[in-house]
Design brief:
four-stranded antiparallel beta sheet
């Protein structure tokens, strides 16, 4: 769900907006080709890395991307568990597998990655993109976005499992036997000879172990069957719903999005919930764009410059006019929202640029497409006029 809502159908799309359209197209096409071959191991493409990084941010609270520079730029995702969190050395300013320049510095200089045995791979900080959103400046490692929900989810799973076990036990076990005089059951039943008063050995009672429909069994005196009442939980639905609401709130999404339960929503409530969660999704999109996409693109563009594939002036021009476009979202109720946006534009409360950005469309791209559309319409009219003139001549 997070992949589809935040990354969309095709991830973040590079947009170059210099006045040199030929340069724009060349850079965009070159970067798109690189996206297919960016993986150090030749396994993933750039869209895969977008998903892996997003999942790592929610699961681990951080993601580590290794940069490998050469004739072509390569990247590798390092699992957060592989950064040696237990490696600490106060003398070397190493904490949780990350070495800093000094005791009070916030700048990392090396990362220590666990290998087989006690060996560690040392990677310079200039070759690592450490993506995390700290709560305080001195924080060394990231905080999982699932941290606030994990306890509720665990308790909910335990409760569901307990209720399922009780229901299964109730369906498999019909009842049990009790002695009316509270003496123990099982095995030999003590009996005494009425004449001599001596204990009669090997006296026992046979108790039925199963019940069959339409069959009655005789029980000895003093034995009473006790049937188990069927289990009918009354609070499980309320408990699960309230827990899901807490989990959804902690993750910054609506209850309907988390569960897919639309039974109690109307247009106003779902619009309010969707608007709030999309605001959170946009923050995540902007965070990924700043920390991951922009950083990797600058590294890639520098490699292109060093390889003499672009000139220094083109490098500076592209560096000042690039952006990554995340996806927008469809309207919840198109007729109502289009009418509302139209009134807002006419009243001056919104601009066309704002409306287009809400849909994930940049204004310059929109204008370019309008121009293309006008050319197509003009060409179609020209073809139609030629056909009409020919038919008249005939």
């Amino acid at each position: 769900m997070l992949d589809s809502e935040i990354l969309g159908e095709s991830g973040f799309v590079l947009d170059i907006a210099t006045q040199n359209r030929k340069l724009n197209t060349a850079i965009q096409n070159a970067f798109f080709d690189w996206e297919q071959e960016c993986c150090l191991h030749g396994v993933y493409d750039f869209e895969d890395y977008e998903e892996l990084v997003l999942n790592a941010l929610y699961r681990d609270g951080e993601a580590f991307i290794r940069i490998i520079r050469g004739q072509a730029l390569k990247i590798e995702l390092i699992d957060a568990d592989d950064i040696d969190n237990d490696f600490n050395d106060e003398a070397l300013n190493i904490k949780c597998g990350i070495q800093r320049a000094s005791k009070y510095s916030l700048t990392p200089i090396r990362y220590y990655v666990k290998k087989d045995g006690n060996e560690r791979l040392v990677i310079e900080a200039k070759d690592i993109i450490h993506i995390k959103k700290p709560l305080i400046a001195k924080q060394t490692r990231g905080n999982s976005k699932l941290a606030s929900a994990i306890l509720d989810i665990h308790q909910k799973d335990k409760f569901k499992k307990a209720e399922l076990n009780r229901a299964r036990l109730g369906s498999e076990m019909t009842g049990f036997y009790l002695r009316k005089d509270d003496s123990p059951l099982g095995g030999a039943i003590p009996e005494f000879d009425e004449n001599t008063g001596e204990l009669i050995e090997n006296s026992s009672v046979e108790l039925p172990e199963s019940v069959e429909v339409g069959t009655m069994r005789f029980l000895d005196d003093g034995i009473q069957p006790h049937f188990i009442d069927p289990h009918n939980p009354t609070n499980i639905e309320f408990y699960l719903k309230s827990t899901n609401q807490e989990v959804a709130r902690s993750l910054g999404i609506s209850y309907a999005t988390l569960t897919g339960d639309l039974s109690s929503v109307n247009y106003s409530s779902i619009r309010q919930g969707t608007t709030a969660e999309r605001r959170g999704f946009r923050r995540t999109q902007n965070f990924l764009r700043r920390k991951m996409h922009n950083t990797i693109f600058k590294e890639w563009l520098l490699i292109e410059l060093l390889a003499n594939k672009i000139t220094p002036s083109e490098y500076a021009l592209v560096l000042a006019h690039f952006s990554f476009k995340p996806q927008g979202w469809e309207y919840i109720d198109p007729s109502k929202e289009v009418a509302a946006n139209s009134k807002a534009i006419d009243s001056g409360f919104k601009t066309r640029v704002e409306v287009l950005r809400e849909k994930g469309i940049e204004y310059d791209t929109y204008l370019d497409e309008l121009e293309k559309e006008k050319l197509i319409v003009a060409k179609l009219k020209e073809i139609e006029n030629i056909r009409n003139s020919r038919s008249k001549n005939e």
